[in-house]
Amino acid sequence: MIVVTGAAGFVGSGLVSKLNDIGIKRIIIVDDFSNDEKEHNLVGKKYIKRIDREEFMPWLKEHGDEVKFIFHIGARTDTTEFDKEIFDRLNLNYSKDLWRHATQYGIPMVYASSAATYGLGESGYDDDHRLVDDLKPLNAYGDSKNDFDKWVLTQSIKPPFWAGLKFFNVYGPNEYHKARMASVVLHAYRQISKTGELKLFRSHNEKYEDGEQKRDFIYVKDVLNICIFLMEKRPKSGLYNVGSGKARTFKTLAVDTFHAMNRDVEISYIDTPADIRDKYQYFTEAKINKLIAAGYTEGFHTLEQGINDYVKNYLMEGKYL
Asked: Which of 154, 172, 204, 317 is the most buried (most CB within 10 A)?
């Protein structure tokens, strides 16, 4: 059996779909299933049992010897939440408990970290373990992810294989329930559909023109390919950046979205809200040397390719992955 936590969410549900595609159906899905909107992500998926996240640890104590791999994707991901206790409970301590069980039963484990651990990028975007203690996340969510990474690196007893994936800006199908935490691509599509135009944040940094702020955007299908690669090949354990390795501008993303929708480009700029202005990232770019050196050869969708596929084959069709 393979366990996927966060299985009703964005990346988690896509991973269940990907596992089904390669013939794996003995899957235990774990999540907080109280959000009815996320149920759409699970339609048509093949799995053998769903377990509420609060009931999962007792279940794992009894069935750990039957589990062959764990994908721990579930987490509280709201970067605007400031209650540290919530993140300590759901992201840090829950992950520690799962790690201990994986270690006890010898279960390989891949878990979701985040590029939010890098903060403003003062130390760069390198997944070198020696840099983890120096990182300065910008919010409680990033802190919780970095705290777990730091804890993992201090453990003397570990699962037979483990990988912590530092997801950069992931976009793609099955994120429809994420509201304000959805990708810029989805927000752009919805705004263009409704108004025919798109408003981007104005630059408040003299080094960047309006719309020239850059992020590393990665299509969710590439994220899923990386997850399967790690499960099947099990290279050296450690933290891995999961990004495209190429920063692209918000203006490029916007233009690509207009083109995929066959709409004329109409972009204007608004001030970045004052409460997030001093924590706004103007540049992120994953250093993916470690992933490539580990043997990953699938390549990545360009931003144009990813947006075109997402918009035409999912958003405009109302489809899920």
From this structure: 172
